[in-house]
Design a protein that fits this description.
The chain is mainly alpha-helical. It folds into two domains: 41-231, Lysozyme, CATH 1.10.530; 238-289. The chain has helices spanning 2-25, 52-66, 69-92, 100-107, 127-132, 147-165, 168-177, 179-189, 201-218, 250-256, 261-267, and strands at 41-42, 45-46, 238-243, 284-289.
Amino acid sequence: MKMIKKVVLVATIIGLSGILINATSNTKNTDTSSYFPEAIDFAGEATPLQIYDVRERMDRELLINENLHSSTILILKRANKFFPIIEPILAKNNVPDDFKYLAVIESSLITASVSKAGASGIWQFMKQTAVEKGMEVSESVDERYHLEKSTEAACKYLLSAKEKFGSWTLAAASYNGGMAGVAKQIESQQVSNYYDLLLVEETSRYVFRILALKEIMKKPTIYGFNLQPKDLYKNLPTRKIEFDSSISNLASFAKSQGINYKILKYYNPWLRDKKLDNLGNKKYEIEIPTEGY
């Protein structure tokens, strides 16, 4: 009798385990373990997936980013907020829309992102490069954190790189490896295609990471990310104040606009101090939210 009870108990446990396994597997709509795109391109330039090492490197980045669940979910949420600002600036400058995914892998679309080397903002500019591209970097203002201005600067760089290399893929690679570094490897290896170059690890993975995020973000449900519109971050309405003078106390200024210092800095991350020195009477625009704060 006891033996029968034990058998029934084991069977019950096995049955429950099966139910739990089935319930867990149903959290994703699609089994993505064997999914691989038939074709993919960057800015209209086809990725040669028929080359074995290219296919393997692409597969690696897809698997990594597919399984970085919290990071990829946050990127998908932030994209709804930042892509509507980035996309028209790329279009205006005749830079392919795919370069918005370069911003994704640079910073995960975190406005306040700072690398160990000191590259800052969503586009991760070093101070010297930022200044060369026309951005202000001072104690009170750092336009690397200004989304519109840093996107314009990124366009300038990418257009110069495209002119130099004749390829958008190589232009993207040079954003990581530098124009001089990529040019040196092209010359020494006697090839002119990114996918034929042997580069340092980070630059070698760079374009594949862009392609992986592009693939996942364009087809999120295929890769198991089932976000609803209500889950996504969004831009709230703002009004802009234009001025050409110094502000001695940003906290007091914020209060005069009906908000607090925290909200002022959240909407204007390029303001880096508690005051704004403007001895040259430069024109600035400060964004003030009109709801949701």
